Amino acid sequence: MPDTEAAMPRAVPEEALAHELRSSLHGEVIDRGHPGYDEARAVWNGLIDRHPALVARCSGTADVVEAVRAARKFRPVVSVRGGGHQVAGSAVCDDGLVIDLSHMKGVHVDPAARTARARAGVTWGEFDRETQLYRLAAPGGEISATGIAGLTLGGGFGFVMRTFGLSCDSLRSLTVVTADGTVRTASREEEPELFWAARGGGRGIGVVTSFEFDLHPLGPEVAAVLVLHPYERAEEVLRAWRDAAAVAPDTVTPELLLWSVPADPGVPAELHRASCVMVGAVHGGPPGDDAAAALAPQRELGPPLADLSGTVPYVALQGANTWRFPDGERYFMKSHFMDDLGDEAVRTLVDWYSRRPTPESLIVVRTLGGAVARVGPDDSAFAHRSARFNVSIDAGWQDPALDDTAIGWARSAWDAMKPFSSGGTYVNFAGLGEDAGELRGAVFGSHEERLEHTRAAYDPEGLFRSAAYRP
């Protein structure tokens, strides 16, 4: 990492810090001897096995203020946990203080204003459940168990991003506890530089305790494509999909996966877990003839193994992949932004997928453009507005004995795709902690210096500096 001192654990007077926190927090303070310690330090990615000194499970913003005040006094390494679903496991740290927001729940929807305010422990599944009562949505992640906080602060890819933008593009305001313990509202009008940093570069700016989103008319049902093609036609389908994606309207967000056939009742059982090419797309508007016409090119890429396309509840769509990424299994993901997907890049992707170590491992190609590209390049800290694609190499496995093999495959595949990259990496798919130094410039691009300046202005003593340097 570029700042070794910031990343190193400091000697923490754990008993004194614990006493300070217990005397001021309404929420629970969990130390190493607590019966719930192992549960409190566990995150979605079972590869992450960190042992914090203390977990401050905050009940509200006032608890966060007290936790930040205690952290300023005792100076532990600090990490912040929202949903705990991030690949690199940055929600937990070794021998430091975890400011845990995961129990801070609640979503308030104003259907007339088309806005929603959600606390930082809310997941996208919980958020969508409330907003869909009014047929409204903010663009969220592709797995309903993902927390709104980490995804949004890192940008926020989702199934309808070409129609409505990244998750961070729908932000109206945030409540942030900065390093001095001040509760601030950040928006375009108030603390605009803090608001800029939070949209794509939000690690290390403080502790965001709530998010206010603009909502968009969508649902309760949407038209979606899911077509499975034989893996033997992978290169052909990839090239055809690339060409179709290039002319897709902004109402369509195409996606392609090299993965295993799911255990879906619409697919013959003998095909389950076999390699295939999955073509997916979602229409960001009402289902009907216009949606079917816009999606048709995504369904016409050759004879399929199965066509599972149709109209589905938006909430069901958002949760459809969650079961394929269960809590506690082991994951490693690393990505490239790309301006083009030429034939040699296609061949390289297919070749490396053929070497995957487990049936759970996959390669995902997501299409940007549309509303993502209509935001000005410097209007938010997200640094890759002009990229056309994001290619993510995603290893998944269960057996710890496969750690080196699975991670080695993903790293090697990522290296092989580097010549085709535009030089950028998505922070939410950026590897593990040891990747931070190599990738930091690739994550923030030309915005890195401005982010540093903003963080220093709100955190001159570097309380959240170690968090800022994590992927």
TrEMBL record:
PANTHER family: BINDING OXIDOREDUCTASE, PUTATIVE (AFU_ORTHOLOGUE AFUA_1G17690)-RELATED, FAD-BINDING PCMH-TYPE DOMAIN-CONTAINING PROTEIN. InterPro entries: FAD-bd_PCMH, FAD-bd_PCMH-like_sf, FAD-bd_PCMH_sub1, FAD-bd_PCMH_sub2, FAD-linked_Oxidoreductase, Oxid_FAD_bind_N, Oxy_OxRdtase_FAD_BS. It comes from Streptomyces atrovirens. Residues 48-218 form the FAD-binding PCMH-type domain. Its cofactor is FAD. This is FAD-binding oxidoreductase. Belongs to the oxygen-dependent FAD-linked oxidoreductase family. Keywords: FAD, Flavoprotein, Oxidoreductase. It comes from the Bacteria.
